[in-house]
Amino acid sequence: MEGKRKAVVLLSGGLDSSTVLAYAISKGYDVHAISFDYGQRHSREMKSSEDLARYYGVDRKIVHVDLRSIGKSALTDDIEVPTRSLESISDEIPVTYVPARNTIFLAIAAAYAESLGSTDIFIGANAIDYSGYPDCRPEYFNAMENALSLGTEIGLKHGMHINVPLQYLTKGEIITLGMKLGVPYHLTWSCYRGGDKACGECDSCLLRLKGFMEAGSEDPIKYEKYPEFYERYLKDRKK
Description:
The chain is of the alpha/beta class. The protein has helices at residues 15-26, 44-56, 101-116, 138-151, 153-158, 171-181, 203-214, 228-238, and strands at residues 6-10, 30-37, 59-64, 120-122, 161-163. It contains eight helices and five strands.
């Protein structure tokens, strides 16, 4: 492989994927972003992924996968997005889990990587501050990497690599890393609900705000309301 090593980065438009995009670029990869229009309940994330790709000047491929036809998730079906306390988020797998989503996305990302002559895929999954999804755990990525290495021509020759650099970082540590890398977090979107402002109530909003609090910074995007712990944090910062 001549020149820079190519890498495919899964870019959802969220906080984690934007940090991983910046991380892969900082490591000298020739980055090719891939975003999935999978029938999610709103297109706000897709707009953010477009903005981020433009900001960094990277190619972005959009793949359409109809997971709405499968359903059984609050992100693809007519199921209410739950509101839980921060303390109970990882207690059980929530209805926002999309069946086999990362497995589907990684398989397609591997096909794209192989077409580029690349063996590297980057994904912004995290197993510390997360909603308990089974396809975000280290053992899952190890098994998936092995499957993709066995199931692709380039993998058989060189091995396929799923890079999960944020895997063991807290949200606060992820944001701290992102700020060092200059990630434009004002362009990102994490909320499970669509709208002009993030809801401030869903799992993703709570974890995101907790991360900015731990990083000693303020989230630059707008919210409909803040949870009590973040309201207290903002008041303390003004003292």
